[in-house]
Every structure is written in structure tokens, then in C-alpha cells.
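Wed. Picked up where I left off yesterday with LLM class F420-dependent oxidoreductase. The coffee machine is broken again, so keeping this brief.
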Amino acid sequence: MKIGYKLVAEAFGPQELIRQAVRAEQAGFDFVEMSDHFHPWVEAQGHSPFVWSVLGAIAAKTTTLGLATGVTCPSVRYHPAIIAQAAATLALISDGRFTLGLGSGERLNEHIVGRGFPGVHERHRMFNEALEIIRLLFEGGYQNYDGAYLKLEDARIFDLPAAALPLAIAVSGPDSIALAAKHGDGLFAVEPDPDLVTGYRDAGGTGPLYCEAPLAWAPTEEAAVRAAHSTNAWSVTGWKVMAELPNPVNFEAAAGTVREDDIRQQYACGPDVERHLEVIGQFTDAGFDHIALMNAGDDPDGFFDFFESELRPRLLAQSTPAPTARRAP
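Structure written out below (C-alpha cells, as returned):
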């Protein structure tokens, strides 16, 4: 099992995210992942820097920390050729530490270029074409593509990493699972749903299984619940809501009926390590092996101290196989 740290790009500016990534490496995290947003979810979060600049700076300031986008939509706001070039460059400057997480997108970020945001089935067809283009470009040489939605003309990425750059595909149901098994080297999910894992494996998918575990550290449970409720109430509304709303104000309205008790049910809130292990355990029990811890509390350094001193030792103990008893001669 690999333990990651979710860089909450909607809640912190770029310099602070870089500082947190350096601290995450020092605290013993295996990787960091960062969303690729244009907008924050709600105005109270107040940030949304460009992920590729931030991850590039993190790559230069760390040595062992894995990096991942969690996740990038390569088919509406971006053309997939641009994402393929950006990912190849980041893989090179990080010495092979980068995983390209990809998904079909949310209206929140993709509508801003004025191309509209298609329905889910059309999104998946566009996403399939984008994945085919990225794979073509990673093969090297000049490439062309003539799809129903996306085109590529005499394009070549000149700086490609020697080793294959892994793709982790976001999944939420059968259609996206099929795309992940076809094009991906791993999957990415935000729910502790074992059917996503088994569906991916049954479809022939291999590789790491990424997820995000919702935590909120604070010295008291009440403080953690208040912090998570003020900035992350939207997260309990479900993926159909999260994919379709256009702006932070809409997410604020959608989250208006979310209670603090709803946060308590989904998030591990406060300083109790057992509750944090319980929430993380939902994902490991479902079969995920790359667990990104998303701290919705407002004290990241307090969370890092808690992770180092209490949570990480317990997670390591759980993931270490028990020694096999030796038989007497």
C-alpha cells in the first residue's frame, strides 16, 4: 500500500501547495496528487492555481515523492496533445515520478472555454478519442488522428521519457471502467466501492488503484467538522451533482442542505486515530492500494504532525505482513 497526500488546490495558493508537498515528503508520504481545476468548488475555498506549474515546482524541490494529477480532463478545456506534452515534460523533470491521472471532466472547469459541456455518454466518446491521441503521441514520431470530436495533424512530442508514462483513469461506473481497462495503467476513484475495483480487474485492467480518503484533522472533533463543513459540504452531494454544476455559487446552493452530521458520517473528523483508520480502511477493504489522504481541516501542519506521529505508524503496521511462523525441526 502507498499513502499519498491530496494537495487541496482549491483551498491554498501555489506557494503554500509547494511548501505542503515538501513537508509531505519529509513526513513520509509516498506521493502527492493534485486536482486540475480552473475554479474552486466554492468561493470560501478561494484558490485554484495552474496544476502544471505547481507540480513542476514540486518536482524540482523533492527527490522521492511521487506526483499525480487527480485528475485532468484532456478533451474540453485542453486539447489532448497539450496534455501529452505537459505530462511528458513533467515526467522528465521529475525523473519518472509522475502519473497522469485523467478523467472526463466536470462542468465547473470545462465550460469556461465556451465549447459547452456534453452529456455523459458524449463526454465518454470524446474522452476515448483523447486517450487514443495521448497514447499515439507517447509512441513517438509524427502522428495524425481524425476523430468525430478531436483531430491531430502532424504532431510530435520531441521530449519523451524513456520509460512509459503511466495513465490512471478516473472511474465511476461501467462506461468509465471500460475506458480505464482499455487505455489505463491504473484507475482513480473517490468512493470506497469494491465494484469499481472488481469491474476494472474483470475487464483486464491492471496497475495501481488510486483513491481519496476524506479526513479532517483538528485538535477537537467539533473544530474539524466545522472546518470541513465550511469548505467541503459540496463533497457529500454525489458525483452526478459534482460533474454537472457550472460555478462555485451553484455548489454553495447545492450544499445548503448538507448538515454537520453528514460530514461526520463521511469524514474522519478530529484527532482520533481510530476514526481515521476506519475511514481509510473502507478504501483498503474495497481493494484500493494507493490511498491519497485528503485533509479538509484548516491546519495542514497539525495534520502532518498527526500523520507522522500517530497515523503513519499504524498504517505501516497494518500493511506489513505478519511474519510466518517457523516450524520446529
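Quick read: Residues 325-329 have pLDDT under 50 and may be disordered.
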